[in-house]
Amino acid sequence: MAGTGEGKKEEADYKRLHCFPLIRETDMPEEMKVETMELCVTACEKFATNNESAAKMIKESMDKKFGSSWHVVIGEGFGLEVTHEVKNMLYMFFGGSLAVCVWRCS
Amino acid sequence: MPVTDKSVAASVRKDDEERVDTVDRWDESHHGKGLIKPPDQLELTEAELKEEFTRILTANNPHAPANIVLYNSKRYRHASVTQMIVHFVVEGSLLHQDSDEARRQKQIGCQPEPPPRSNFSSLANQWVIYDAYMEELQKQERNKEKQKAAPSKKDPDNTKRAVVSTDSHGHDISKVRKAVKIIERMVNQNTFDEIAQDFKYYEDDSDEFRAQEGTLLPLWKFQYDQAKGLSVTALCWNKKYQDLFAVGMGSYDFNKQEHGLLVFYSLKNTAFPEYSYPTKSGILCIDIHEQHSYLVAVGFYDGCVAVYNLNKEGMDAVHKSTAKTGKHTDPVWQVRWQKDDLDNNHNFYSVSSDGRVASWTLVKNELVFTDVIKLSLNGAMSEGTEGSQQPIIACGTAFDFHKEIDYLFLVGTGEGKIHKCSKTYSSHFLETYVAHSMAVDAVKWNHFHPKVFISCSSDWTIKIWDHTINTPIFTFDLNAAVGDVSWSPYSSTVFSAVTIDGTVHVFDLNINKYEAICQPAVMAKKKGKLTRVEFNPIHPIIIVGDDRGYVTSLKLSPNLRKKPKAKKGQELATGPEVEVAKMDKLLSLLQQPENSTA
């Protein structure tokens, strides 16, 4: 029993490790997209246990870099419907179980 | 006179008066004498001095402006503007603020627009995420494979991609296949709407006037592009799905042996076959199993027999006999399914020009055969080498199994003889009838009467027999070689025959014992020969095949479908007994005259 439990845990860890950031939907220009994605990955890795802090970090950095009124949502299970400014939206998966959505709307 | 003078004069006078007054008063006090004139006093004549000047004194201030702009509060507007000086004029026009023009001006001009926005919605779930990752991994793997394959070979890569694309196409089509099929049928029904209506409802009213005759109404004509050049060699209705029938195509011509085609048509879609199987050799006969209507036995010109399974995908037969497994050495003219044998294996019989009647059993995906009987010419024995006697083998050209008596069957031969045989006797015939002068093309038991069968031949005749009697009961001469004859499933006295001059003959022995009651020419005389005819088990139509590869369907008019009339008060007895009785009556009528004329 313990063996299988450990096995599962290993599997989950392995999955999370070898699951790279996967951009699901975006309309950002290439540079902006890459920067934003890297920022999200950094934040999620830093605050792996606390989605709120990760989101805070992402939002503040985005505001500084690209201008005001960014919004960030991080979670493992949610549905969403947002109005965003064109060319200012990124929706990606990370770590095998996290979904991050970043968009701008003033 | 200047005013100043006057005023001075006035003031002088006033002064004078004052002075006088003062003088008077003074005088009172002083008693001065005479006027004292100041030295600068204006000198006026006495007349001028006496002039009177009037002065009017009013309350109005003469210096105040005469034209003031007054606001008339009653009328809420400025009024009494008598003097106006225009300082500045500019021509302009008014725009309503919501009008297009105004909006455009605003846009071009001053206000900054908000940046374009769009909506985005999505669902984030564990399984959605997982699926996305799996897909991505697969894509990556495929990319890696492609990269590995690319440097080594480039062609298989392209074909792989082509295959993948057609696969996806195939998937797409297969998903809508069912819907497309239904729509195709709908379109066909609409296109051939009149025919469909006729098929269902048309009853030829003129039959009431023609007591002895009937008509055949042409309905659909089935033709298939790939079947051009082939003639219809076999027709078979499906017992279970009565709108489905099978057409076997091949060639009767010895010299022109080409490929063959097994085609299934449904009345629901008359433009294109439901199933089609190309075969290497021409088909000569087909039979659809009664219970398992997806099993089709086929006999070929090259002597093979095969079994097709309509349920299975693929163009090949499920089973096929080969030279090793005992195929016939000559064309197989007839195949017939039998009831499953004791081991519950399907089996069927075949008859061929090589003189063998063989039984084939499907044993565990294999076709096993046994010779049932060898047809030999009675009495004629040829001297073989070393004095051994070898029977000359006759060609079997047709056979039919009795509907009720399972082991009893008839075989027609190429010499014109019909043998009555039993499955249990392999070398002996129960009986032989000298039927025709040429090859027997078809032999069929009556569906109802257990004793009656019919045979037709290229010697222009059709003969009806009672199997207990050696001579035919009826003989019909049709003036042309008869290709096929078939009993109707609804009446024991109705049968139909087709001839090579393109005519269909329908006979009803109840109505007319000597002639056909209906003889429409289905095809123009020189154009083609009719080769096969079959009745539909339930609908009142027959299908006729010809040597051009066309199958025509015809509707039988009511006269051709007459059932015995019920006497008043009696119930119409259904089915077989009535038919049998009908036939018996006929036979008994004929027994005596036949005996006398035979």
UniProtKB/TrEMBL annotation, chain A:
<comment type="subunit">
    <text>Consists of at least two heavy chains and a number of intermediate and light chains.</text>
</comment>
<comment type="similarity">
    <text>Belongs to the dynein light chain family.</text>
</comment>
<keyword id="KW-0243">Dynein</keyword>
<comment type="function">
    <text>Force generating protein of respiratory cilia. Produces force towards the minus ends of microtubules. Dynein has ATPase activity.</text>
</comment>
<keyword id="KW-0493">Microtubule</keyword>
<keyword id="KW-0969">Cilium</keyword>
<dbReference type="Pfam" id="PF01221">
    <property type="entry name" value="Dynein_light"/>
</dbReference>
<dbReference type="GO" id="GO:0005930">
    <property type="term" value="C:axoneme"/>
</dbReference>
<dbReference type="GO" id="GO:0005874">
    <property type="term" value="C:microtubule"/>
</dbReference>
<dbReference type="InterPro" id="IPR037177">
    <property type="entry name" value="DLC_sf"/>
</dbReference>
<dbReference type="InterPro" id="IPR001372">
    <property type="entry name" value="Dynein_light_chain_typ-1/2"/>
</dbReference>
<dbReference type="GO" id="GO:0030286">
    <property type="term" value="C:dynein complex"/>
</dbReference>
<dbReference type="GO" id="GO:0007017">
    <property type="term" value="P:microtubule-based process"/>
</dbReference>
<protein>
    <recommendedName>
        <fullName>Dynein light chain</fullName>
    </recommendedName>
</protein>
<keyword id="KW-0206">Cytoskeleton</keyword>
<keyword id="KW-0505">Motor protein</keyword>
<keyword id="KW-0966">Cell projection</keyword>
<keyword id="KW-0963">Cytoplasm</keyword>
Automatic annotation (TrEMBL), chain B:
<dbReference type="GO" id="GO:0003341">
    <property type="term" value="P:cilium movement"/>
</dbReference>
<comment type="similarity">
    <text>Belongs to the dynein intermediate chain family.</text>
</comment>
<dbReference type="GO" id="GO:0005874">
    <property type="term" value="C:microtubule"/>
</dbReference>
<keyword id="KW-0243">Dynein</keyword>
<feature type="repeat" description="WD">
    <location>
        <begin position="433"/>
        <end position="466"/>
    </location>
</feature>
<feature type="region of interest" description="Disordered">
    <location>
        <begin position="100"/>
        <end position="121"/>
    </location>
</feature>
<dbReference type="Pfam" id="PF00400">
    <property type="entry name" value="WD40"/>
</dbReference>
<comment type="subunit">
    <text>Consists of at least two heavy chains and a number of intermediate and light chains. Interacts with BICD2. Interacts with CFAP45 and CFAP52. Interacts with CFAP53.</text>
</comment>
<dbReference type="InterPro" id="IPR001680">
    <property type="entry name" value="WD40_rpt"/>
</dbReference>
<feature type="compositionally biased region" description="Basic and acidic residues">
    <location>
        <begin position="12"/>
        <end position="22"/>
    </location>
</feature>
<feature type="region of interest" description="Disordered">
    <location>
        <begin position="139"/>
        <end position="168"/>
    </location>
</feature>
<keyword id="KW-0853">WD repeat</keyword>
<keyword id="KW-0493">Microtubule</keyword>
<dbReference type="GO" id="GO:0036157">
    <property type="term" value="C:outer dynein arm"/>
</dbReference>
<dbReference type="InterPro" id="IPR036322">
    <property type="entry name" value="WD40_repeat_dom_sf"/>
</dbReference>
<dbReference type="GO" id="GO:0045503">
    <property type="term" value="F:dynein light chain binding"/>
</dbReference>
<keyword id="KW-0966">Cell projection</keyword>
<keyword id="KW-0206">Cytoskeleton</keyword>
<dbReference type="InterPro" id="IPR015943">
    <property type="entry name" value="WD40/YVTN_repeat-like_dom_sf"/>
</dbReference>
<comment type="function">
    <text>Part of the dynein complex of respiratory cilia.</text>
</comment>
<keyword id="KW-0677">Repeat</keyword>
<keyword id="KW-0505">Motor protein</keyword>
